[in-house]
Amino acid sequence: MSSIPAAVPAPPSGDEPRRGRPGYDQRQVLDIAVAAFIEHGYDATSMGVLAARLGLSKSAIYHHFPSKGDLLRLALDEALTALEGVLTAPEALQGRAADRLAFVLRGAVIVLVNNISYVTLLLRVHGNTDVERDALARRRAFDRSVTALVVEARDEGSVRSDIDPRIVTRLLFGMINSLVEWYRPGGPENTEKLADDILAVALDGLRTPTADRAG
Amino acid sequence: MSSIPAAVPAPPSGDEPRRGRPGYDQRQVLDIAVAAFIEHGYDATSMGVLAARLGLSKSAIYHHFPSKGDLLRLALDEALTALEGVLTAPEALQGRAADRLAFVLRGAVIVLVNNISYVTLLLRVHGNTDVERDALARRRAFDRSVTALVVEARDEGSVRSDIDPRIVTRLLFGMINSLVEWYRPGGPENTEKLADDILAVALDGLRTPTADRAG
User: Fold this and answer.
1) What digits encode the pLDDT tens for the residues B76-97?
2) How many other C-beta atoms lie within 10 A of the C-beta of residue B69?
3) Which residues fall under the DNA-binding region feature (chains A, B) (predicted)?
4) Domain at B1-66, CATH from 3.40.1550.10, 1.10.238.10, 1.10.10.60, 1.10.290.10
């Protein structure tokens, strides 16, 4: 989300021309707010700064988002709802635990890539406000569900039992969430190949099956 | 950071009441500065804030650290020198590439755990100043060395060849660097066991060797 010119009228999205000031729909305002939060930090981004970026008056923003916290809440909800959707898809609920775990990891990679700025914001939340604490609680619940899947996969014998399942979840999401640091949309890495690579390392490791495992 | 002259008289050890100004050596000042940078952000931490945290006058800090950038430079150098030291240890230079790679990954975990606040600061650097850009250049050089090891290990046949070695390095350090988010010194996870766990996932994966790999 690097190249959003500040205060340039947004193109009327599709159909109708909008009245008066540059027109944005709620999602566009949110996109621009999220980019500003990531670039400058949430605390350092005032509604005035956002208004300037959008070329709107502060009152025009307040009309749709009564506070900066509302923007944050909606943005975090966007990321969390997408992640939670992976856990409730049929493929996450039926079948062998190992396959469900693989589905959830792949789904998390795809959600992250498709919502990279929203997930970046989510990963930077540290619980300074009620909105942030609610988001952290939902993240923890997501992690617990993944850990429960790891436990199931271990109990069915398909995942190694010598690592604490909570550590497993943290390492897996360490790998997945690192994408926000280095993945650039439109880069050479295709999302599906990236998900394949992450699953390959997570499930089968780097070492070739024929290599000496004593090292 | 070896043998740095004390800025002011060293604090009385134990619980004797202190007289006059508190005394710190350079490392202690750096530790407190790094903690403040992490808590409030580097930009938001003024020398005045640091002086207040230390109970020193600003001039007492400036006497040893002419600018805030000097504190940042020393802190980042601390983390980078420790990481670079792993690459130049004999075990990183001799033997099979797969074993050298395993040694470097384990060493990086140990450096991270033993210098967690310094590495946390390093990982948050985004290149806004010359000091930060120099640190990023050293981080990239470190990553390139690890990638070169991955390539060697692939060429000797001990590491899978179906993933771009640069992606491999990013995923490995995604997993390792995530420790700064969740590892707490003194917690239940022992450093060696943590390093074992990370190497186990990275090299052999989560899946049990007997499990069906078709999933």
Assistant:
1) 999 999 999 999 999 999 999 9
2) 14
3) 46-65
4) 1.10.10.60
